[in-house]
Design a protein that fits this description.
By secondary structure, the protein is mainly alpha-helical. It contains six helices and two strands, in the order H-H-E-H-H-E-H-H. A two-stranded antiparallel ribbon has the order 1-2.
């Protein structure tokens, strides 16, 4: 998990630094719509798997804007492996553990991108990739 997190930090943040200014208003609207379309409203409870799947979707949608299929595949593979690692670590809790959903960091990323503040978006993305909703993840 530590290695995957390190890869994601490098890959996602580096691409955002280099290509974030090329993200269009339409793409930002798509990302924003993905947040509002989530069936879980911030502040409600959800299970671990559902929360994680929404998180994965957000990161893949954001990364798709860079139009680099190879790098997208690398990120997708890393997220799939991270999902498997979490599943093994929490296999008995995936459906029983409830979380209060907060998409605060994702909303901050969208706001930062809307305002053209790529550096702030990168800092928030770093926090988001490293945050596991208070779960005791062995890093």
């Amino acid at each position: 998990i530590r290695d995957i997190r390190g890869l994601r930090l490098s890959l996602e943040c580096d691409f955002l630094i280099h290509y974030g200014s090329q993200i269009t208003k339409e793409e930002i609207n798509t990302l924003s719509s993905a947040l509002t379309a989530e069936k879980n409203v911030a502040g409600t409870e959800t299970d671990l798997l559902e929360n994680w799947q929404e998180n994965v979707r957000f990161h893949l949608v954001l990364f798709s804007f860079y139009k680099n299929p190879y790098a997208y595949h690398v990120l997708e593979d890393a997220l799939n492996r991270q999902t498997m690692a979490f599943a093994q670590f929490y296999w008995d809790k995936w459906r029983r553990k409830r979380l209060v959903v907060s998409d605060r960091l994702h909303k901050e990323i969208v706001d930062d991108l809307s305002n053209g503040n790529i550096q702030a978006a990168v800092r928030t993305l770093e926090k988001d990739i490293s945050d596991y909703n208070g779960l005791d993840i062995p890093l």
